[in-house]
Amino acid sequence: xxxxxxxxxxxxxxxxxxxxxxxxxxxxxxxxxxxxxxxxxxxxxxxxxxxxxxxxxxxxxxxxxxxxxxxxxxxxxxxxxxxxxxxxxxxxxxxxxxxxxxxxxxxxxxxxxxxxxxxxxxxxxxxxxxxxxxxxxxxxxxxxxxxxxxxxxxxxxxxxxxxxxxxxxxxxxxxxxxxxxxxxxxxxxxxxxxxxxxxxxxxxxxxxxxxxxxxxxxxxxxxxxxxxxxxxxxxxxxxxxxxxxxxxxxxxxxxxxxxxxxxxxxxxxxxxxxxxxxxxxxxxxxxxxxxxxxxxxxxxxxxxx
Amino acid sequence: xxxxxxxxxxxxxxxxxxxxxxxxxxxxxxxxxxxxxxxxxxxxxxxxxxxxxxxxxxxxxxxxxxxxxxxxxxxxxxxxxxxxxxxxxxxxxxxxxxxxxxxxxxxxxxxxxxxxxxxxxxxxxxxxxxxxxxxxxxxxxxxxxxxxxxxxxxxxxxxxxxxxxxxxxxxxxxxxxxxxxxxxxxxxxxxxxxxxxxxxxxxxxxxxxxxxxxxxxxxxxxxxxxxxxxxxxxxxxxxxxxxxxxxxxxxxxxxxxxxxxxxxxxxxxxxxxxxxxxxxxxxxxxxxxxxxxxxxxxxxxxxxxxxxxxxxxxxxxxxxxxxxxxxxxxxxxxxxxxxxxxxxxxxxxxxxxxxxxxxxxxxxxxxxxxxxxxxxxxxxxxxxxxxxxxxxxxxxxxxxxxxxxxxxxxxxxxxxxxxxxxxxxxxxxxxxxxxxxxxxxxxxxxxxxxxxxxxxxxxxxxxxxxxxxxxxxxxxxxxxxxxxxxxxxxxxxxxxxxxxxxxxxxxxxxxxxxxxxxxxxxxxxxxxxxxxxxxxxxxxxxxxxxxxxxxxxxxxxxxxxxxxxxxxxxxxxxxxxxxxxxxxxxxxxxxxxxxxxxxxxxxxxxxxxxxxxxxxxxxxxxxxxxxxxxxxxxxxxxxxxxxxxxxxxxxxxxxxxxxxxxxxxxxxxxxxxxxxxxxxxxxxxxxxxxxxxxxxxxxxxxxxxxxxxxxxxxxxxxxxxxxxxxxxxxxxxxxxxxxxxxxxxxxxxxxxxxxxxxxxxxxxxxxxxxxxxxxxxxxxxxxxxxxxxxxxxxxxxxxxxxxxxxxxxxxxxxxxxxxxxxxxxxxxxxxxxxxxxxxxxxxxxxxxxxxxxxxxxxxxxxxxxxxxxxxxxxxxxxxxxxxxxxxxxxxxxxxxxxxxxxxxxxxxxxxxxxxxxx
Lengths: 305, 918
Prior knowledge:
The complex is a heterodimer.
Chain A lengths: L1 H5 L6 H11 L16 H12 L4 E10 L5 E12 L5 E9 L7 E5 L7 E5 L6 E4 L15 H4 L7 E11 L2 E10 L2 H7 L3 E7 L5 E7 L8 E6 L6 E2 L7 E6 L4 E12 L10 H4 L8 H5 L17
Parallel strand pairs in A: 12-14
Antiparallel strand pairs in A: 1-2, 1-14, 2-3, 3-4, 4-5, 5-6, 7-8, 8-9, 9-10, 10-11, 11-13, 13-14
Chain B lengths: L1 H9 L1 H19 L17 H13 L4 E7 L6 H15 L4 E5 L8 E3 L2 E3 L11 H13 L14 E8 L9 H13 L8 E6 H35 L2 H25 L10 H25 L4 H28 L7 H32 L9 H22 L3 H18 L18 H12 L4 E8 L8 H15 L4 E5 L1 H12 L13 H7 L5 H4 L9 E8 L4 H16 L8 E4 L1 H7 L1 H26 L3 H25 L10 H27 L2 H30 L5 H29 L7 H6 L4 H6 L8 H10 L1 E5 L4 E3 L4 E2 L2 E6 L2 E7 L2 E8 L4 E2 L1 H5 L2 E2 L3 E4 L3 E6 L1 H10 L1 H24 L13
Antiparallel strand pairs in B: 1-5, 1-6, 2-5, 3-4, 7-9, 7-10, 8-9, 11-20, 12-19, 13-18, 14-17, 14-20, 15-16, 15-19
Helix pairs in contact in B: 1-10, 1-11, 2-8, 2-11, 6-7, 7-8, 7-9, 7-24, 8-9, 8-11, 9-10, 9-11, 9-24, 10-11, 10-23, 12-24, 12-25, 13-22, 13-25, 19-20, 21-22, 21-23, 22-23, 22-25, 23-24, 23-25, 24-25, 30-31
């Protein structure tokens, strides 16, 4: 039950980005089932089960590359832990560059489905409670929007398994997600999405986002390097994910510096009251939990590998 | 020329076949012609300003917009918004669109429940109308949306498509985008009360369509008008058809050559076919008039063609050259559009000249016999009467009072010249449209309800990271506010607006908080709310440059230049702390190019004048002749400039062509008159009589061609393009003024000089012994001696003819150029031969200084050529050739001195006319 909730709630950056884009396709009554052929929903269930973990602590380097090749690099730590009742709690904190250190987004899932969100800018000194929806905003100025990472309502979509293909030498399942009605399509900004899942590892390989009337995707999400990622825990995570924004001609890369699954995380990190007490020292236990420092001077990553 | 005419006449069918073949080839080549009406052609390339613009555009994105205007009283109705959103999604997919600004993309920075919403106003359309109304209220308060995307009343919105730069040779890009937009918006037309496309691709496509529409009107009408005018004046249908046929052939050749050379059809050179038709017809008229004269003189066939070539061959070559030059020099401009026009029009005029000299003789061979006799005898007499009257007025009234005539013309020209500085300058695409055109109405509607289509970039340059710093951002904010105070600007947007609005949103949407924050870390943290692409138009990737984007509706180049100049001055003064500021944008560059129009005007006019002066001076071996031809043709130009100033007609890409082109055309008539005058002088010896006779001969063709040209240019006055319209009307006017000048000022000025041509001197056979034997030519080169002889009167007598009769009074001195004279005295029936004078000898020298009775008979022993000099001719020679005449005077003084000495020494001698050699 706990794991089920985890996979259908707020983004968890690299993992969540990869997984939510795949796991958003729940089982529906319309899913195609015939003989031994797996439906799209079957594939998603299998994938969710394989990627599950109790807590998650990740050090991520996010690089935003614009049309001219200018880059903005930010490092952040993502912590995910359920409360005593099994409601998931997410904390995203920027740890570099210096001027944005301490910027925090805290999301507390509530049993009624209404999430409580807090946003903290150290330069203002006071945490702010967010009561509206921010799904249309860019996530930390990157090419990922909250909408890209949001929980998807299964009633709004229909799923179709398409002919299997090959992506970069890997055999993949191909699943198409289409909005159930015109209003949803218009509101969504995407007419449909096509998800590519590695047949062998059940890891997500690629997601294409299509707009109405377009034959070319507006955005392409790719996940790489599952094997090379430094992950302490029972599941795999992609070492790097790329969101290629074809409309804006920009792309963003999230590189997983290290992931610790099922590791202990202090409760105070999920307490909104503690946000106003933030100092750089507060993050020390988090940072020291990882033994590998981030390399801020590395060349900007390519969107194609 | 005579050989060419003869060849084409003899091998008429071959020539016709060749012309048909070439025309076919040219037409095939012409199918590859492209149309280019881009504003890029109105900007000088490779300039520093162009490079700066390219860099700014590379950093901050395109300033070229395609705009879709949507208006509806119920615009914020949910259903309509859904439709609008669908339409914008369609538009976003058009190839060549860099980014789209709309209600669905422009940042609507607002405080939303503690969070700062920086997404678009409508990332999604809210399900309830109430929520939509809340958004609408937010939008109407948002400076990033107001007038950029949304009208102040909320009933109109603008979808701005920022376009990628397309390769220069992709001349179809504008039409492609325009048509793609039209196709995408068509299904949504019914959803809104008003929707239309404006902006750069639309404007360029409409312009290109106008060009085609103009062609449909201008060519047939100017052709018809010419046929009517020339047909009426020549009294011959065939005579009127020939110029049209010639024009058709040379137009095909020109278009073919343009395609071959890669010259596209532009907003200016599209009138070249009409110009070929109008201007080229003048030469044809001259040729046909000569042919008619030849036929009336009883000449036919090759003799008639030979007659034409000998009479006006030189003039045709000269006028072909000057007209082509007149057009070619308009291309001496930094603007691509002017270069293309200059090149294509010069090609047009050259091909027209070629077709005239090749085709007409061949045509006359085949169809000449059917060329009807032009006028009835009575009509001819009427023409002659008018011409004679005019010639008489010049001979009797004007030429004798040349000073007064020149003064009168100067009285008109000087005020016109003084008015030149008041002429407005313009280089604006929108101002090229008729003010009452539906396009202007659309643009006005957009500009009134939202903002103008002109984009100005004010770029502040600093070091990397400068525009993350508080002090620089504060200064940027001050500049933005200062710019916003300017009522000329519809919208002003900068990075400081984004930060101010986030700050306001962060503090609960309190208006007082709408300012750049004071703390640098807070600024850095605010930047996290934006995707890089949102800020791309306003700040460079390394934060070293900030860009302020201004939109305005200033369509007057001078006004826009003044605004830009003021901005540059204020910003460079250091008032806001950024000395390195670039103000650029395509609109700015186009407006700034008015200076290039003025420079181009000066260069083309001075090149034309200088070349004309040199050619005429060389051809007629006289600086005075050069000066006369230039002055006579500058007068109409001065008048036109005066009229432009008084009527407020601006100097633009159209009107700046008038001066050089009209000189090139008007000088044709001047040349015809000068060449004719030169011939008449040889015949009639007297300047006044010669000019009167020349004017009488040239009156009819000069009037015909001038009226034909004026009529043809008037047709251009009905063009859809204001510069072409102004060019047409002004050129028509200048043709009429040039006609008056050619009938009054030019002959009056010409009558003050004697003309010989270079060919006269070259062709004149002067015997070497004459130079050595005659004291008159002592110290002169052969060239000088020839020139002297040709400038003075040369008289010819056949053997046995008396040259001087004893007892008569005379004032001429004669020098024997060829032949022999016998000097004799009669005593009753007896004749006493005193002496025989030979080559170089002179006779009658006393009469030169004092009119006196001749003391002996002088008779031509053989056919003789005599150089006749009298006091008046010496005075005239002194005026026209001071250097040459000074040499002559020295020689004459020497001769007279020796003669005096001899006379004194030989008093009582019986041989008063002693043969003298030195």
